[in-house]
Design a protein that fits this description.
With about 210 residues, the chain is mainly α. Helices cover about 50% and strands about 5% of the residues. The chain has a two-stranded antiparallel ribbon with strand order 1-2. Belongs to the RRP7 family.
Length: about 210
């Protein structure tokens, strides 16, 4: 605000972009959110003052001949110290109505963008391009779940039941492996006993004249 006020004598200021380091100085298409992704720049900064008309740039260059420009004056003081801390604290308090209005506006833009993309995809589906390729899209049969608390609870309950069934199947699989392992051990034991019995029977059939 102070920079816009100082340079407004040269011409109408379109905007002032403050950056942490020198760069292209190009203005973003959309201003950053007041509540989200707010980054406070610390230390030395670079400001780009953009005028609405090019002639104001030459007038701004001529300001150096008039002496230094004072940002803080009696008529337009800049808050420092405790006054600045109090102002920063008051600015950090979120107004629920403004926050709700910004979130609603963002969601409206998002829903509009998604609807346009879906309409464009539906229009282009099945239509071959210049090379003859046809874009195939896969759409789910079930519509998206409503973003409500009841829907979230149902989803959590389904996940819980799914995990319980998976744990039960894993237990049955482990029990089946243990039963199979015990059966193999019994077969090996019986096989060894049969070998010993056959060896004993063969030894008893040997001819002993005395």
């Amino acid at each position: 605000d102070s920079l816009s006020r100082l340079f407004s004598r040269c011409g109408q200021v379109q905007y002032v972009d403050i950056c942490d380091k020198p760069g292209p100085g190009e203005k973003k298409d959309k201003l950053a959110s007041k509540f989200f992704d707010h980054k406070t720049l610390k230390g030395f900064q670079v400001a780009y003052v953009v005028f609405r008309k090019p002639a104001a740039v030459q007038a701004a260059k001529a300001l150096s001949q008039e002496g230094p420009l004072l940002i803080s004056t009696e008529s337009h003081p800049v808050k420092t110290g405790i006054s600045k801390w109090i102002a920063n604290y008051e600015a950090s308090i979120v107004d629920p109505k403004e926050l709700k209005a910004e979130v609603d506006a963002y969601m409206q833009d998002y829903d509009k963008k998604m609807a346009e993309e879906e309409a464009k995809a539906a229009k282009e589906e099945g239509v071959p391009d210049e090379e003859g390729w046809v874009k195939v899209t896969r759409k789910g049969r079930k519509p998206g779940l409503p973003r409500t608390e009841a829907a979230n609870l149902r989803m959590l309950e389904k996940e819980k039941q799914k995990r319980a069934r998976k744990e039960l199947l894993n237990f049955y699989a482990w029990q089946h492996r243990e039963t199979k392992r015990e059966h193999i051990a019994q077969l090996r034991k019986k096989f060894e006993e049969d070998k010993q019995r056959i060896a004993l029977m063969r030894a008893q059939r040997k001819f002993r004249p005395y």
